[in-house]
């Protein structure tokens, strides 16, 4: 708590308050049995950005009102506190509104890839922000949007003032923390299930060393300073400052909500119990909303804390209440003794805690093998944060994630299916070596809803197959399209196309028109067209768009195997049927031309076949 209060740009005591008040409220009303909320490094970083970007705007308000400052607060410290509690109040309102209006489904658009890339890059930014503490320097604050680059430039400008004692203490703390967490604690947990509390031990040891050697005066090591005893005094957030802070509070609310609900979802699935996300959003919002009146900043779930409490057998929020009792003891009795803790020790604890988050970059090769789009989302989210800052990085990451949904819809997989042996199982011939195409048939599966974004790709793919499979006497030019499919055997006289519609969960107007045009053009070229496994909702949509005026209902089959058996036992399409199809095409052209699309354009499209 002390470390994360410092990371947020506030007094360390504010971190302790945040580890008590919101945790207690959520423990009483929260719906997740395993979720433990409180301070979190990423949330402290976002709050730090929000505070540094807004506290100077509050100083004129403070001077104008001639407000009497609370005990032990300077004007700048109080302005930072108001920025934090007003921003947390705003973020809590966002979370509360999402829960009350049952808008939690919006959080599904924050993909795992985006969240991992964002958090990994944000962890790097947190690490950079802690370097001044580890080196014992005070660089100027970065005001540009290029946060990491600006921070490093400002750091190097004052690097000659670094305190060597602080540097040595930081290096020793980081080394011990890393060794214990990575190598010793895994062995300890096998025997006792509870990890060695190395952070607490480090704090106690350095606290005693600082107190007895008077590090602050004799060696110039910066210490935490005064830690007040007792419960927090209520301070009302200045709601007149809310419009100024609100834009900066949006990323705090979104990231805090997503991280918290992701953890809650993970544990409710692992331990198999029902969970209402919207209700818990509201409870999380209320807990942080009330806490903002008690000098607390926004609280959310943290993976490290949850991992510890679950590993020791947490089954209810009673463990959070026990944690609160310990924190209460610290505030009422032990807190003032923390004044001599070197700030570089708290910075070391933060830096080492981020290692596992930064290690997420090692997942990139696996993500690349699984999905290039997910890889791109991860990379864009991470680079946006690294190059710019957290707030802009979040906005760019979310925008690109939504764009990736469009990309997936626009460029779905299209498969040519083959039959596996004498079974009724059909699989992609490019994936399954045992799947073989049937003589005279082309079975095509389009793995996406058919809509305006991808209908042209569907049509181009099918017509390209038709062009490559066409008998030489019927060959005519078709525009070149890009599609991935196995080369057709020119010796095979393909007479029937079977469209596997099982992946068509929906079809829009453009999709229906494309299916109709594709059907008519294939039929005009001498192919029979069958439809298999078409969902009722899609068939209804086809009916509403008069598709059955051009295609008989008998061409639709419940199973793919039924369609294949039918196609294998009927003769190729006759010339009379082809002629009939040509008349239907011309009728459709006239109808569509009257409905708004220029008939001349459609005729041109038709004659180009």
UniProtKB/TrEMBL annotation:
<dbReference type="GO" id="GO:0016020">
    <property type="term" value="C:membrane"/>
</dbReference>
<feature type="transmembrane region" description="Helical">
    <location>
        <begin position="117"/>
        <end position="135"/>
    </location>
</feature>
<dbReference type="InterPro" id="IPR002645">
    <property type="entry name" value="STAS_dom"/>
</dbReference>
<keyword id="KW-1133">Transmembrane helix</keyword>
<feature type="transmembrane region" description="Helical">
    <location>
        <begin position="12"/>
        <end position="29"/>
    </location>
</feature>
<feature type="transmembrane region" description="Helical">
    <location>
        <begin position="36"/>
        <end position="55"/>
    </location>
</feature>
<keyword id="KW-0472">Membrane</keyword>
<feature type="transmembrane region" description="Helical">
    <location>
        <begin position="378"/>
        <end position="407"/>
    </location>
</feature>
<feature type="transmembrane region" description="Helical">
    <location>
        <begin position="341"/>
        <end position="358"/>
    </location>
</feature>
<feature type="transmembrane region" description="Helical">
    <location>
        <begin position="155"/>
        <end position="180"/>
    </location>
</feature>
<dbReference type="GO" id="GO:0055085">
    <property type="term" value="P:transmembrane transport"/>
</dbReference>
<dbReference type="InterPro" id="IPR011547">
    <property type="entry name" value="SLC26A/SulP_dom"/>
</dbReference>
<feature type="transmembrane region" description="Helical">
    <location>
        <begin position="192"/>
        <end position="210"/>
    </location>
</feature>
<keyword id="KW-0812">Transmembrane</keyword>
<feature type="transmembrane region" description="Helical">
    <location>
        <begin position="249"/>
        <end position="269"/>
    </location>
</feature>
<dbReference type="InterPro" id="IPR036513">
    <property type="entry name" value="STAS_dom_sf"/>
</dbReference>
<dbReference type="Pfam" id="PF01740">
    <property type="entry name" value="STAS"/>
</dbReference>
<protein>
    <submittedName>
        <fullName>STAS domain-containing protein</fullName>
    </submittedName>
</protein>
<feature type="transmembrane region" description="Helical">
    <location>
        <begin position="84"/>
        <end position="105"/>
    </location>
</feature>
<feature type="transmembrane region" description="Helical">
    <location>
        <begin position="281"/>
        <end position="304"/>
    </location>
</feature>
<feature type="domain" description="STAS">
    <location>
        <begin position="431"/>
        <end position="567"/>
    </location>
</feature>
<dbReference type="Pfam" id="PF00916">
    <property type="entry name" value="Sulfate_transp"/>
</dbReference>
<dbReference type="InterPro" id="IPR001902">
    <property type="entry name" value="SLC26A/SulP_fam"/>
</dbReference>
């Amino acid at each position: 708590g002390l470390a994360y209060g410092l990371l947020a740009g506030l007094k360390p005591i504010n971190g302790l308050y945040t580890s008590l008040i919101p945790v207690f409220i959520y423990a009483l009303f929260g719906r997740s049995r395993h979720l433990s909320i409180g301070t979190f490094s990423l949330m402290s970083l976002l709050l730090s950005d929000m505070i540094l970007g807004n506290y100077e705007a509050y100083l004129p308000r403070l001077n104008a009102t001639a407000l009497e400052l609370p005990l032990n607060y300077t004007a700048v410290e109080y302005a930072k506190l108001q920025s934090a509690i007003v921003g947390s109040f705003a973020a809590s309102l966002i979370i509360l509104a999402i829960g009350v209006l049952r808008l939690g489904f919006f959080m599904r658009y924050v993909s795992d890839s985006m969240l991992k890339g964002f958090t990994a890059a944000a962890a790097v930014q947190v690490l950079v922000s802690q370097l001044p503490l580890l080196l014992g320097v005070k660089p100027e604050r970065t005001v540009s949007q290029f946060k990491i680059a600006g921070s490093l430039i400002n750091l190097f400008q004052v690097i000659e003032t670094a305190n060597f004692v602080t540097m040595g203490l930081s290096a020793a703390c980081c080394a011990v923390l890393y060794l214990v967490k990575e190598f010793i604690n895994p062995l300890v947990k096998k025997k006792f299930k509870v990890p060695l509390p190395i952070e607490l031990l480090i704090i106690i040891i350095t606290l005693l060393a600082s107190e007895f050697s008077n590090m602050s005066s004799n060696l110039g090591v910066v210490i935490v300073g005064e830690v007040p005893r007792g419960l927090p005094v209520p301070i009302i957030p200045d709601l007149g400052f809310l419009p100024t802070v609100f834009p900066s509070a949006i990323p705090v609310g979104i990231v805090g909500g997503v991280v918290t609900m992701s953890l809650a979802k993970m544990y409710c699935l692992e331990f198999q119990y029902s969970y209402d996300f919207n209700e818990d959003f509201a409870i999380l919002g209320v807990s942080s909303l009330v806490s903002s009146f008690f000098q607390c900043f926004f609280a959310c779930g943290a993976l490290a804390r949850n991992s510890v409490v679950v590993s020791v057998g947490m089954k209810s929020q009673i463990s959070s209440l026990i944690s609160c009792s310990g924190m209460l003891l610290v505030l009422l009795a032990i807190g003032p003794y923390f004044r001599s803790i070197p700030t570089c020790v708290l910075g070391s604890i933060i830096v080492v805690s981020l290692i596992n988050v930064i290690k997420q970059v090692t997942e990139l090769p696996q993500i690349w093998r699984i999905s290039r789009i997910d890889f791109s989302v991860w990379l864009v989210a991470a680079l946006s944060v690294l190059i710019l800052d957290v707030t802009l990085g979040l906005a760019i990451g979310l925008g690109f994630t939504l764009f990736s949904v469009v990309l997936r819809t626009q460029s779905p997989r299209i498969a040519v299916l083959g039959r596996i042996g004498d079974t009724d199982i059909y699989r992609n011939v490019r994936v399954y070596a045992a799947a073989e195409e049937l003589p005279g048939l082309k079975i095509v599966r389009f793995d996406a809803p058919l809509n305006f974004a991808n209908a042209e790709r569907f049509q181009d793919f099918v017509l390209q197959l038709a062009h490559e499979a066409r008998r030489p006497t019927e060959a005519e030019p078709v525009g070149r399209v890009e599609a991935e499919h196995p080369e057709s055997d020119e010796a095979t006289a393909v007479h029937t196309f079977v469209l596997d519609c099982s992946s068509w969960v929906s079809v829009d107007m453009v999709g229906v028109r494309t299916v109709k045009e594709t059907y008519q053009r294939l039929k005009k070229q001498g192919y029979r067209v069958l439809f298999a496994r078409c969902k009722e909702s899609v068939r209804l949509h086809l009916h509403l768009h008069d598709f059955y005026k051009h295609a008989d209902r008998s061409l639709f089959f419940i199973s793919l195997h039924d369609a294949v058996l039918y196609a294998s036992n009927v003769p190729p399409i006759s010339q009379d049927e082809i002629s009939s199809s040509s008349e239907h095409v011309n009728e459709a052209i006239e109808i569509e031309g009257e409905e708004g699309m220029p008939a001349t354009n459609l005729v041109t499209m038709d004659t180009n076949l």
